[in-house]
Design goal:
Blueprint lengths: L3 H4 L7 H9 L2 H7 L3 H16 L4 E4 L2 E7 L10 E7 L4 E7 L10 H8 L3 E4 L14 E3 L2 E4 L7 E7 L7 E5 L5 H4 L3 E11 L14 E9 L4 E10 L1 H10 L4 E9 L4 E6 L2 E6 L20 E7 L2
Helix pairs in contact: 2-4, 3-4
């Protein structure tokens, strides 16, 4: 059974509307009739959620937060995990098992072997369990030289100071030919939020765990993860309700392979995905998958 709150089209609301409705319930009672009390409390819940983001400082330039979405998933705790990374303090590493003919590893295993503070998926991969689904290049190593129709490319390890240390290149807003020689590391995947902060994913019935890379308007990178399955559209919408000031975002991986790992200053967090149907089924309990390609961070000297 679908909970009542899942049936309401929250896409018709923005934060200004939530604030307006939060201040006056008289109009809500008049307009929405028998659903007024439910709607009033739902709007209050959403407004509270949008303000309820608490950052835990782990180290200089590294902040962690975890918050429960108001739109409940049928599986798990409905929480989103966020790691905010200031690139002035951290270097980003693109690691591919294919580069040195290594075995696939879980994020924890990759982090231990490569001395990483945190890690997330670098993108979806092909049937050979090694090759990225989109373009991927790390310095002189090319994992996949094919630029497909995915519209975002994460770029880092810049060659000069004329570009940000890390960015998500939007191929519909920016010129690839001008940027492809500005960085050493690239990984391509699917656009979620474009350069105008629009949702670029149509509503679908399928629901997934997800790992996501985003950039905020201050130039911080965000590693984002949810174990609880959502449709990608609903996940993006809920994410935009939070005061994250997201500039753009890209989908990295979904379902059981989606993963997140952090181990720094005594805080260790390992998370893995699930899938409502298909790959791992509802019986999945978030067992970490061995992955071929990951993005990790290390602190600058």
């Amino acid at each position: 059974m679908i909970p009542l709150e899942n049936k309401f089209d929250f896409n018709m609301l923005d934060l200004n509307m939530l604030q307006m409705y939060n201040k006056t319930n008289t109009n809500i009672l008049r307009v929405f009739g028998k659903y007024s009390l439910w709607l009033f409390f739902s709007l209050n819940s959403l407004y509270s959620f949008s303000q309820n983001l608490i950052w835990i400082k782990i180290d200089s330039g590294l902040f962690f937060s975890e918050v429960r979405f108001p739109l409940k998933s049928d599986i798990g705790d409905s929480k989103v995990t966020i790691l905010k990374i200031d690139p002035h303090f951290y270097n980003f590493k693109l690691i591919s098992a294919k580069e040195k003919n290594e075995e696939n590893k879980t994020l924890k295993e990759w982090s231990e072997s490569k001395s990483l503070i945190a890690a997330i998926n670098a993108g979806m991969y092909q049937g050979d369990n090694k090759t990225n689904a989109g373009f991927m290049k790390n310095y002189d190593f090319v994992n996949n030289n094919h630029l497909n129709n995915y519209n975002t490319i994460a770029a880092f390890n810049r060659k000069d100071s004329t570009v940000p240390e890390i960015q998500i290149i939007d191929l519909k807003c920016q010129k690839w030919e001008e940027l492809k020689d500005k960085y050493n590391s690239f990984t391509q995947c699917i656009r979620m939020i474009d350069c105008d902060q629009n949702i670029k994913w149509r509503q679908q019935s399928r629901e997934y765990s997800m790992s996501v890379l985003a950039m905020d308007k201050n130039g911080n990178a965000l590693f984002i993860f949810t174990h609880s399955p959502y449709s990608v559209h609903d996940f993006i919408y809920n994410l935009k309700l939070l005061p994250l000031y997201i500039y753009n975002a890209m989908y990295l991986e979904g379902a059981a392979p989606a993963s997140f790992y952090l181990n720094n200053k005594g805080l260790e967090i390992e998370k893995a995905g699930s899938f409502r149907f298909g790959i791992s089924g509802e019986g999945d309990r978030g067992i970490a998958w061995k992955l071929p390609n990951i993005i990790g961070i290390v602190k600058k000297d």
